[in-house]
Design a protein that fits this description.
15% of the residues lie in helices and 30% in strands. The longest helix is centred in the first third of the chain and has 16 residues. The termini are far apart. Keywords: Acyltransferase, Lipid A biosynthesis, Lipid biosynthesis, Lipid metabolism, Repeat, Transferase.
């Protein structure tokens, strides 16, 4: 896709300084910009690159005043970073604006679809599925019986959405995601063997939830596994049965949350965090990467370590831990003097 500086300025409500007819067809970092590319300058430490860049167009803040001659055409906006993000979003919308049903696909006669559907080849749509308006379902997607999907949802190639799952509006489900697989429920019998406990619940994603590639979200044993509105999950995360994640919480890659744990609103959880089951994590909690959480967590706590400690206590303890060999030598020397 090709855009002129004038067209981009119109999208961003910006002002062109240079040639409004110059066009771009790709994006680039400012230090790697070349002819035909669009870049941006938001961080002052990269200012020197604007005088060297070969990018055809550069988005800058309105208060930017060049101190040298420029080869690039400028588009001045209120906030260059936000405007560039807006442009990326617009680009994705245009790029992904597919409509129509490819062949072959399987669609149950009892499934219903809204307007502006895109259904990629080799997809399967089960019985009594309800799909809203402007939904994009890429090839090789499986959607089981009785699934409900809201408006403006994107389901990328190879995702699997098991029966009874409910997906809200404006959600994004990336490739390889599995929503609604059985929870890890087994009970030992008298002979020490494990018998499966039927998993009869479902998964609910509220509005504006993003699920990263390869992430798995298990159905509840009874009731629902719930991701509240605005939750963002990175790639390769495991969410177990009956977990509930509060509004606008974000979780980084390779984190695992065990069954029936409740996580509050506006939490930030780092990568490779392990969280045990049947606990409650409060609102506005921060958990550093590779921490292990084995207890209830109060609102606003910041934790690190395994088992996790208060972030400040962890750092104080770590100072002593890394000096432990020296401390032991000092103790040995003192004992030898006696």
């Amino acid at each position: 896709m090709v855009f002129t500086a004038g067209q981009i300025a119109g999208i961003l409500e910006g002002e062109v300084h240079g040639n409004p007819e110059i066009s771009v067809h790709k994006l680039a970092k400012i230090e790697e910009g070349e002819k035909g590319s669009l870049t941006f300058l938001a961080n002052p430490k990269y200012t020197s690159f604007i005088y060297k860049t070969k990018a055809s167009i550069t988005i800058v803040n309105k208060d930017f005043v060049p101190e040298q001659d420029l080869e690039t055409t400028l588009i001045k906006v209120e906030d260059a970073y936000k405007s560039f993000s807006k442009l990326l979003e617009y680009y994705n919308q245009v790029k992904n604006n597919k409509i129509g049903i490819e062949e072959p696909v399987f669609k149950s006669e009892t499934a219903t679809f809204g307007n502006d559907l895109y259904l990629g080849a080799f997809s399967y749509i089960g019985s009594n599925v309800v799909i809203g308006h402007n939904v994009k379902i890429y090839p090789n997607v499986y959607i089981g019986d009785n699934v409900k999907i809201g408006d403006n949802v994107v389901v990328f190639a190879g995702a699997k959405i098991y029966s009874e799952s409910i997906i809200g509006n404006n959600c994004v489900v990336h490739s390889g995601v599995i929503i609604g697989a059985d929870g890890f429920g087994f009970t030992p019998n008298s002979e020490g063997e494990f018998t499966k406990v039927p998993q009869t619940g479902n998964v609910i994603l509220e509005d504006n939830v993003d699920v990263g590639a390869g992430t798995t979200i298990d159905r509840a044993t009874l009731g629902s596994t719930i991701l509240r509105k605005g939750v963002k999950l990175d790639n390769q995360i495991q969410i177990a049965h009956n977990v509930e994640i509060g509004e606008h919480t974000v979780i980084a890659a390779q984190t695992g949350v065990a069954g029936s744990t409740k996580i509050g609103k506006h939490c930030m959880i780092g990568g490779q965090v392990g969280i045990v089951g049947h606990i409650v994590i409060g609102n506005n909690v921060r958990i550093q990467a590779q921490s292990g959480i084995g207890r209830n967590v109060k609102d606003n706590e910041v934790l690190q370590g395994s088992p996790a400690l208060n972030y400040g206590d962890f750092n104080k303890s770590y100072v002593h831990f890394k000096n432990l060999p020296k401390i032991i030598n000092r103790i040995d020397n003192l004992e030898n003097k006696d």
